[in-house]
Structures are given as C-alpha cells and as structure tokens.
Amino acid sequence: MSDFPDDIYTEPANVDVDTLANLGPLRAMAGVWQGVRGLDVKPKADGPRKQAFIERIELQPIDPQTNGPQLLYGLRYHTHITKPGQVKTYHDQVGYWLWEPATGCVIHTLTIPRGQTAMASGTAAADAKAFELVATQGLSTWGICSARFLEYAFKTTAFTIKV
C-alpha cells in the first residue's frame, strides 16, 4: 500500500499564500540571525584544529510550492561564515527549509560550494519547538551526495541537525 494518492497530478485548491502563517515549526526561524561565538573543529593531518567563526543566516519566506497534491511552505536560506576580523568566506551554504502541513514532514536541503549537497528530513507537529532531521549517504531520498574528492578524502556518511 502506498502513502501517496492515486491522483498525483491534481494540485490543491484554495492554497493560502500567507507563507509565514503556514510554516508550522519553521515559523520562528524566519528572519536574519547572527552568531559571534561559533566554533568549528576540522580535520587536519596533525590532528583536529579548532577555529572560531562568525555566522550570519538569512531565512526568507518563499511562495507555497506544489508537487501535484503535495503542498509545501518554506524558507530559502543563505548561511555565510567568516573568521573573526576577516571578510573572506570561511563557509557558505544555501538551501531550503520546507514544511509539509499534511504529513508533518520537515525537509532541510543544503548545498556547499565544495561539491556537496544533502537533503534531510524528519517529522514535527505544527507547534513543535524542537525537532531533528537526518540524511544518510547512499539513499535516494533524504540522502547525501558528494563530489569525488570529498567522497574519497572526507566522506560524509550521515548528517543530523537538531533544531
């Protein structure tokens, strides 16, 4: 038995275009945020190295999206990270946070300019204040895809984010 309807083409009628009112657990994330006390631990040949960073995240509402009967509300985001006192990019990331009210599915897509993308998912109630999303390498849904060098030298087998 499928979780999906027989009619995969008919889009929902009377879609509410007020994205902010329909973001469920993502609503409080909308806006521009900055953190000045970040700490990255990255691999190096002589052992892990710690690096302080400053992070700016912009999360902007998008128009409702449909895939046939599926209705998604979301936020387009951009994360930009620098080292303290520098303007050069230390890390950059773009993607979407999506909410499917009919199922409670939360989706997080992310892409970094070093050749990696991931799509993580989980479920949450519309009024949830915390939730967890997971992506696993090798899956065709909710997976991780990396460029050949990253796959060879710095393989990412799983991604978990707790909000």
Keywords:
single chain; 163 residues; mainly beta; Lipocalin; 9-stranded mixed β-sheet; 9 strands; 4% helix
Quick recap:
It contains one helix and nine strands, in the order ββββββββαβ. It has a nine-stranded mixed β-sheet. A hairpin with a 6-residue loop joins strand 3 and strand 4.
| DSSP summary: helix tally | 1
The strands making up the biggest β-sheet line up spatially as 1-2-3-4-5-6-8-7-9
Principal-axes shape call: globular
* Biggest sheet overview: 9 strands, mixed
- Distance linking N and C termini: 32 Å
Poorly predicted regions: none
The helix/strand order is EEEEEEEEHE
Q: Supply the helix-strand structural class.
A: mainly beta
CATH architecture: Beta Barrel
Number of strands: 9
Q: How much of the polypeptide forms β-strand, as a percent range?
A: over 45%
CATH T-level topology: Lipocalin
Q: Helix content range of the residues, please?
A: under 10%
Average pLDDT confidence is: 96
Oligomer: single chain
CATH class group = Mainly Beta
| Count of folded domains | 1
What is Rg? Answer: 18 Å
Structure description:
With 163 residues, the chain is mostly beta strands. It has a single domain (20-162), classed as Lipocalin, CATH 2.40.128. The protein has one helix and nine strands; from the N terminus they run E-E-E-E-E-E-E-E-H-E. The protein has a nine-stranded mixed sheet with strand order 1-2-3-4-5-6-8-7-9. The chain is globular, with a radius of gyration of 18 Å.
